[in-house]
Specification:
By secondary structure, the chain is an alpha+beta fold. The chain is built from twelve helices and eleven strands.
Length: about 475
């Protein structure tokens, strides 16, 4: 029953509406019933006041007994009630024969009420069973006062059938309206539940299609509520998954190509040596090429493993406070920074107090990779300028070269895996296309950011930050 959002919404709302409408109907019915009896009580009290008046007139001799009885009968007929005037005191209550006529209406249960009335109290009972009438009656008892003295009681009995008929009629109206309201509410709840649950069903169907490998269009949901936000988030997730899938395919294609090229070269030289195409005296040159291609394969494999380790969160940093200038001077003076057949000059501008909280080896890896890139993609005379300065709660590094530069439309892709701005230079530079992606991931792992500014033919400047 509650397996779907639609059923949950529909049934929950229906239960709430049924409870509310039923409660209101019961309250209205009960309130109307009380109101009818209150009106009846006021009406009987008014009749009692009239009876009190004519009783005094009769006592003063202004009315005959016959006229009194005629008046009471007429008043009782008009008000659909039976009216009695009893002249008695509390001692008379001990002799029930005096009350025989009245007892026929209430089955002998009048004594306590008469005693209460004779104590100058008004007694009103909504439903008292009358054996004579074989029905329930409304009963009102008030003191009979002659010359301001209590000399008996005025008893008025009125059948509840008219009241019951009125209450029943009103109940039919109330419950009829409640039924119509319930039907209309059910229709509205059904439509509203369908409106709320339909986008969720659409998202569910789209998720199943994506899980089965199908392509699906963006979900269109016009609402501005949480479901609309869910649809936007789902579309974003779907597009990111498609982007990741494309990157995965491109990654596999690039890895396959980059692995195949050196393997083909190695295999070709080995086959040539086995078949005797390459003479033994030329083995040294061939073996050197094989070794270079092997090193290239090893570097690519290490880069892929390292990038995977970073992105999976397996790489842990060993951070310490480092003086940047000292670290950079050691890197610049190291032997592996040399470049074959190139004249390299590096200008360093670094504040003495510049200090970062970073992993020493990983920061060296970042700087070496960026400086090597500047050398690799520059002309014969390489000029590199390195500026380091404190900026807010980080240290900003700027590495600028006079290399070939990068076109603006390609600049935003340079930190992606296997991306090369100039693919024609790949064989010459020997890059794997993973270096800058590793650098970006290492910087972000430190909590910094990296971006580049460049212009084709005028060099490139890479800017990144590391928290201090």
């Amino acid at each position: 029953m509650f397996k779907t959002i639609f059923n949950k919404l529909l049934i929950t709302y229906l239960i709430i509406i049924i409870v509310i409408i039923s409660s209101l109907s019961f309250i209205l019915s009960y309130a109307y019933r009380i109101s009818i009896f209150n009106e009846k009580e006021e009406s009987l009290n008014f009749v009692a006041s009239k009876v009190q008046k004519v009783a005094n007139e009769y006592n003063d001799g202004e009315l005959s007994r016959k006229e009194l009885e005629a008046y009471l009968n007429s008043l009782g007929y008009i008000t659909d009630s039976s009216i009695y005037i009893l002249r008695l005191n509390r001692n008379d209550l001990e002799n029930s024969e005096n009350l025989q006529e009245v007892n026929e209406f209430i089955g002998g249960s009048l004594i306590d009420d008469l005693d209460n009335v004779l104590q100058d109290n008004i007694v009103f009972r909504k439903e008292v069973y009358s054996e004579a009438l074989d029905t329930f009656v409304v009963f009102l008892g008030v003191p009979l006062k002659i010359n301001s003295e209590i000399q008996g009681t005025i008893l008025i009995f009125s059948s509840v059938s008219q009241i019951t008929s009125s209450v029943t009629g009103m109940n039919l109206i109330i419950w009829g309206i409640a039924f119509i309201a319930l039907v209309l509410s059910t229709i509205f709840i059904y439509i509203n539940s369908l409106r709320i649950s339909r986008p969720i069903k659409i998202i569910d169907d789209a998720a199943k299609r994506i899980a089965s490998g199908e392509n699906t269009k963006d979900i269109i949901v016009t609402s501005q509520d949480e479901i609309g936000q869910l649809a936007l988030t789902f579309n974003y997730m779907k597009n990111k998954l498609a982007e990741i899938e494309n990157m995965r395919r491109e990654f596999i294609a690039n890895v396959s190509h980059d692995l195949k090229t050196p393997l083909t070269s190695i295999n070709g030289f080995i086959e040539a040596m086995i078949d005797g195409v390459i003479e033994p005296e030329n083995y040294d040159e061939s073996l050197q090429i094989i070794q270079e291609e092997t090193f290239r394969l090893m570097k690519m494999t290490n880069d892929i493993l390292e990038l995977s380790k970073i992105q999976s969160g397996a790489l842990k940093l060993s951070r310490e406070h480092l003086l940047v200038k000292y670290l950079l001077e050691n890197i610049i003076n190291s032997t592996f920074m040399g470049a074959k057949h190139k004249e390299v000059s590096i200008e360093l501008n670094c504040q003495e107090e510049a200090k970062v909280y970073a992993d020493r080896d990983r920061l060296k890896q970042i700087l070496i990779n960026l400086i090597n890139n500047s050398i690799k993609y520059s002309s014969e005379r390489v000029c590199i300028k390195i500026d380091v300065a404190n900026k807010n709660e980080s240290v900003e590094f700027r590495i600028k070269d006079n290399g070939i530069g990068i076109d603006q439309d390609k600049l935003k892709f340079i930190f992606e895996k296997f991306y090369r701005a100039d693919k024609s230079r790949h064989s010459k530079t020997g890059g794997t296309g993973l270096g800058l992606s590793i650098v970006k991931n290492l910087i972000e792992l430190h909590g910094g950011i990296i971006y580049a500014e460049s212009e084709a033919g005028k060099g490139t400047e890479v800017i990144f930050t590391i928290p201090n």
